[in-house]
Amino acid sequence: MTIWNDLTGLDHHLGYVDAGGIRTRTLRAGEGDEAVVFLHGTSGHLEAFVRNIPAHAAAGYACHAIDMIGHGYTTGPDYPYRIPRYVDHVLAYLDACGIDRAHFVGESLGGWVAGRLAADYPDRVSRLTLVAPGGTVANPQVMERIKTSTRKAVESDDIAFTRKRLELLMFDPAANISDELVEIRHAIYHQPEFVKALPNLLCLQEMENRVEDLLSPEQMGRITAPTLIVWGAQNPFGDVPEAHNLHRSIPGSRLEIFPECGHWPQHEHADHFNALHLGFLNGAQA
User: Model-level pTM?
Assistant: First the structure.
């Protein structure tokens, strides 16, 4: 299977939107009155959701997967990519597309951004899905693992380091990492603009930045959108107790833990995730 096989039969558009002056790559598919915005993780890109967009578009949602600031093929301005910057960029994207309110699916860093957006701009968020979200703890070992693995993949021409970076995300790499996915990420990592922006992209793996931007209990307590939390039982970047703490902090939230699953539940267990998430969007109890 390739990404194009995943998108076979889907009427979609891959292009760019000017979001507050930032040239933003976006994959759009589906028609409907309700928009679903998909946000990827640190050093990731919109291809993280190719196994999810067809099912959501078929269910009648207008789907938007974007590359966030300095990620994928989106412009990387020369400043540290802190959480408020990401939030402002996502809001600018919504405004550019004429979207007043959307459902959000945020994975890892994307969950951190979506959670902060939901806390600070509740009128822009209908339903919130946090997929192995970051941003609630500052674990030096995890932060160093992200920095080291990403830098090796970016600074070396050896594509094996890119594969190893992706393998960190999966419980079952052999079944979920195609050569194509590795090649896509390797090409992204070796753009001159991406290499130049790498220190800005990794700034949240520095303790002084991360601690200041963490989702606080007060912020999580302000999230009013119905919230679904999805976590992998073998998530390498956060243990299961972290998911339970997040669940307790967000009023009325629902927690689902996927067995035999790493940091990409939406990809490793796409059919299960899609059915669960579409039920949630259709009004299943949060």
Answer: 0.97
